Amino acid sequence: MNINDSLNDIGRKSLVASNQVKNFTSEEKNNLLTKIAEKINSDKELILNANQKDISIAADSIDKAMLDRLALNSDRVDSIINSINDIVLLEDPINKVINKNERPNGMLVERVSVPLGVIGIIYESRPNVTIDASVLCLKAGNSVILRGGKESYYSNLQLVTSARNALEESNYDKNIIQFIETTDRNAVDYMLSEMSHYIDVIIPRGGKGLVKKVQDKAKIPVIGHLDGICHVYVDEFADKDKAKQVVNNSKLRRTGICGAAETLLVHKDCIESHLPSIINILKSGGCEIRGDEMITKNYPDLIKANEDDWKTEYLDSIISIKIVEDVNDAIKHITKYGSNHTESIITENKENAEIFLNHVGSAIVMHNTSTQFADGGEFGLGAEIGIATGKLHARGPVGLEGLTTYKYKVRGDGQIRP
Amino acid sequence: MNINDSLNDIGRKSLVASNQVKNFTSEEKNNLLTKIAEKINSDKELILNANQKDISIAADSIDKAMLDRLALNSDRVDSIINSINDIVLLEDPINKVINKNERPNGMLVERVSVPLGVIGIIYESRPNVTIDASVLCLKAGNSVILRGGKESYYSNLQLVTSARNALEESNYDKNIIQFIETTDRNAVDYMLSEMSHYIDVIIPRGGKGLVKKVQDKAKIPVIGHLDGICHVYVDEFADKDKAKQVVNNSKLRRTGICGAAETLLVHKDCIESHLPSIINILKSGGCEIRGDEMITKNYPDLIKANEDDWKTEYLDSIISIKIVEDVNDAIKHITKYGSNHTESIITENKENAEIFLNHVGSAIVMHNTSTQFADGGEFGLGAEIGIATGKLHARGPVGLEGLTTYKYKVRGDGQIRP
Question: What is the ipTM of this complex?
Answer without folding.
Answer: 0.93
